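Q: Could you predict the 3D structure of Poly(A)-specific ribonuclease PARN isoform X2?
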Amino acid sequence: MKKPALVRAFSEALTLVRSTYLLTRPFSSATPSTFSVKKVTKTNFESALEDLRRHVRDADFVSFDLEMTGVTSAPWRDSFEFDRFDVRYLKVKDSAEKFAVVQFGVCPFRWDASKESFVAHPHNFYIFPRKELTVDGPAYEFLCQTSSIDFLAKHQFDFNACIHEGISYLSRAQEAESLRCLNLAHGGEISNSGSHLEDFKDIPLVRTADILFTERMKNRFSEWRDGLLCSTTRQSQLEGQIKDSKQQLQTVFFKMRPALTLNGFTSHQLRLIQLVIRKHFKDLAYVRVYGDDSSEQKLVVYTDSEDDKDLLLKHLKDEFFEQKERKVKNALGFRQVIDLLSSEKKLLVGHNCFLDIAHIYNKFFGPLPATVEEFVSSVHENFPYIIDTKHLLNVESVIQHLMKKKSTSLSSAFSLLCPQIAFASRSSALASHPFVKVEVQVDEMRSSNWNSGAKHEAGYDAFMTGCVFAQVCRHLDINFQVLSLPTELVNSEKLQKHINLLYLSWNNGDVINLSSRDISSQSFVSHNHIRRYPKIVFSNIVLIWGFPSKLKPGELRECVTKVFGPGSVTSIYYLDKTAAFIQFNKEEFVFDFLVLKETLERNNDPISILHPLSKLLEGGKTGAATYEVYKEICRSSISQVLFADQAQEVGVSLKSEVVESREEVGNQEFHSLGRGTGTQKSNSKISSKLYGPYHHLSSDKVMDALYVAESNIEEKRAITANL
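A: Sure. Here are the predicted C-alpha cells for Poly(A)-specific ribonuclease PARN isoform X2:
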C-alpha cells in the first residue's frame, strides 16, 4: 500500500536534485537557458484560473502567443505584396475561421521594485474545441496544414494532452445561441399534461394494448391518489403505495409533495400516461426533471389545487433554466481567460500578432466581421491597449541599431536583446547595455534560472515576447522604477505612438491602427520596408487566371507590351502557376485590356488568331478581371488549391445570382465575369466592376486603336534598326 507514496517521494527527490544541478552548474553562452512554464489542462484549469486572475490583476502588462493547426488554406491565400489591406484581412479571416488554436500562452509580468526586476508567470494552456453541450450546433470542424502539424511535432507538441486534456470553450456568440436553443428546446418540457399533449390528444386508442395500458394506468393512479386522500398523515402507508414487481411506480416526496416515479416505460407508454393524466386527473401533474449529470427523471406529482400546480410548475421551470444556465456557464472553459484579459484592460503584448487577434475574436467572441473596419472597432472595444513587438523592432532606430538588420523573428530578437535570459550569460555584445532582470514564478516557486520550457511552445513564446518588450522599453529609456505601473506605462510618451499599431502583413510592411474608429487610408502606412516591385497602384492591376501553364512571366509581359507599348507594364506577379497580376502604368489600360480580351474571344477570325494576346488566351480558359473581383474571390469561404479553380467556383455562384436577377434588368446586355465567351452573362453591377467607366466602350474601336498602336510600334522598331 505504501509503494505509490515511495515512488512519488523518489520522483520528487530526483526533480529536486535536477533543479539544484541546473541552478548551480555553469552556463555556456551557447547553451540556451530553460525555465518553468505552468502546463494547464482541463484537470487543473479551475485552480490555475484562480491564480491567473490574481496575477493578471496585479500585472503591469500581459504577453500572449498562440499555436495553430495551420495558417493558409490554399497557397494563393498566403500574404502577398500585392494584397491591399482589406484583401489581407479577408485572408486572415479565412485562416482564423478554418484552423484551430491548440495552445494558448499567457504570461503576466509584474514589476517588483524591491528586486528591481519583473516577475513573470508563464502559463501554457492546451485547448481543444470539444463539444460540451448538446445544443451548441454540430461538432466542430477545423483544417490541419501538414507543414504546421509537422512543425508542432518537431518541437515536441503533446497532441495527446491537447486532444484528451485540452480545455474546451464557448464563444460569446455560442453562449448566447446555446441559451436560446435551450429555451426553445426545453422551455415547455417541465409542465403538466395540458401544455404538452396538443400533438397527441386526439390520437385514437385503436390498439388493444394501448386501451388496456391506459385503463390500467388510470386505475393505478386513481388507487394511489385515493390512498393519499384517505391517509395523508401516515408516512408508512405512503411509502407502501403501488409497488409492483418491476418497480415501475414508486412513491416518493418531490418538492414537499407526494409523487410517483415512472421507471422502465417506453416513450410511447409515457405519452399514453400523459394522456391519462390530462384527461382524468386535474390534481396530478406530469413533470420531467434533469440532474446535474444530465440524468432524466419522470414523475407524476400530486398537487392540492390548480394554484399549487401552477406554483410547482413555475418553480420547476425557473430551477430548470438556472440549472441549464449553470451548465452553459461551466462550458465557457478557456473563454474565461479571454474575458479576464478583456475586463482588466491590461496592456497586451504580442509578436506579429494580427492573426492571433483574429483567432481570439473568432474563437472566443463570435464570427469575424465582414470588413476590417468593423473588426478594428470591435477589437479596440475589448482590448484597448495592444503592443506588437514586431512593429517596435522595425520602427525604432535605437532597436534597429542593436539588431544590426538581423531577423526580427521572436527567437532571434530574444537571443539578441535578452542574452542574459536566453543564455544565462553576459558574454553577448549587448552585455554593456541596460538590462532588465526577469524572474519566473510558478506555483510560488521563484527562480532566476529555469528547468523546462521550449521554443514554439505557446507559454514559452509568450514569456519571450514579454522579455523582448521589457528590454525594448529599457533601450527606449523607459525607467520602470519611477513609473507608476501599469497606468504610466500605457501612457508613456515613448510607447503611445506604438500602441495599437499591428503589422497587417510583414510582406508589404502595412500597419493597421486599432485606435482609429473611422478607418481611412492614413491608418495604413508602411515603415522601412524594401519593396521588390514598383509602387503598387491597385486600380492599375488586372487579374488573369486559367492561361496556359507553359506561359512564362517574360512571355506574358511580351504578349501585353506588344499591344500596349514597351513601358505599359510596370510589374507582373504570379499568385500561383494558374494566375497572375499585371500592373499597367495607366488605369485605362486595365479596362482596354478587358474589353480587348472579350472581343478577341468573341471574334474567331484570322486577325484574332494572329493577335499578340492570342498566346495568352490559348485554350479558351483564360479569365480576367479587375482587382476588386480578386477581393470578392478572396472573400469566398471556398478554398480550392489552384486559383483558377477557385475563380471558376466563385464565378459559378456569381452566375447563379445573375440568373436570378435577369428578370429585373430586362433585356440589358450582360458582360462575362470569367472567360468572356459571350454566353456567360453577368449583371450591370459586375460589368461596371470589371470595366469601370469603359464598360460601354465599343470593342471594335478599341481593337482598331490598339492595332494602329501596334503598327506604330513596329514602324519605330524598324526605323531604329536601320539607324
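Q: Anything worth pointing out?
A: Residues 306-330 form the longest helix (25 residues).
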